[in-house]
Amino acid sequence: MSNTSTHGYGYDFPETPPNPTTGRIAVAPVHHEPPPPATVQQLSRFGPRWNIRDVCQQIAQYTLEMGIVEGTTDEWQRTQDPEADFTFHCALDIMAASLFRAKQLVLRHRRGFSEAESVLIGKEIKNVDWGMTHLLYSFVAIRHLETPTMAWNVGTGIERHFFLFKTFQAALEGKLVGEGKEEADKYFAKTNKYFEEVIILFKGPPGSKRPEEDPTLGTFAEINEPLPAGSAAAQPAEPEKVAS
């Protein structure tokens, strides 16, 4: 078999050689394949990019993109048009890609972070919690516009991003120390709780099944779930006091 191909261009392109370790042909290394060896000269020119500044900048980029996704969610709430929906999904994909890179930078940081570095990362995780609170609230604000099937699909998307978010947390396990670790653990726990509550709002409790399409519901459907017991909105309003 020839090791070249014209690809219809009349020019011989050399085929990608198989990975010597796995025998697989891949254009670029994937997560389960070892990275190609690099010379000192290559590393000095192209990397390494896993120092603390790059890790913090990437986590901050992820937080910034939450605001972009929040904006597209607000626009869809206002218009419900296909263009707004398409823009939302593009922004969400970019946000997920940022989280992928943040995770990879942490994984490439083979040694643990110092106490000072951990504090910096802990502060970025606090910002992540703040941004995710706003983003997930923007999803809650559109829940009443969703049919049960639409809500299920949105909940599934949130669930998938939550899975990716937890892999980012797992990448940091054992690498943070001291005050920064405590800060990160605190805000990861808060964010996880938000995710879990919003997923239940859209999909129902764990074990729920995908709802059947109901043509009588029309394009949109109002939510009719009872308010949680003890919530402020579920309490009867106190009568106003009239000054004597």
- Taken as a percent bin, the fraction of beta residues is under 5%
Specify the overall morphology. globular
- Please summarize the sheet with the most strands: 2 strands, antiparallel
Strand order of the largest sheet: 1-2
| Sequence stretches where pLDDT stays below 50 over 5 or more residues | 1-11, 27-33, 219-227
Order of helices and strands: EEHHHHHH
Total DSSP E strands: 2
Structural category: mainly alpha
Region (Disordered): 1-23, 205-244
Break the fold down into its secondary structure elements and pairings:
Blueprint lengths: L3 E2 L7 E2 L25 H7 L5 H28 L2 H27 L6 H28 L5 H25 L5 H26 L41
Helix pairs in contact: 2-3, 2-4, 3-5, 4-6, 5-6
What's the gist of this structure?
The protein is mostly helical and 244 residues long. The chain has a domain of 158 residues: Methane Monooxygenase Hydroxylase, Chain G, domain 1, CATH 1.20.58.
Architecture overview:
The protein has 244 residues and is mainly α. It has a two-stranded antiparallel sheet. The radius of gyration is 24 Å and the shape is globular. The longest helix has 28 residues, at 52-79. It has helices spanning 40-46, 52-79, 82-108, 115-142, 148-172, 178-203; strands at 4-5, 13-14. Mean pLDDT is 78; it is low at 1-11, 27-33 and 219-227. The chain has a domain at 52-209: Methane Monooxygenase Hydroxylase, Chain G, domain 1.
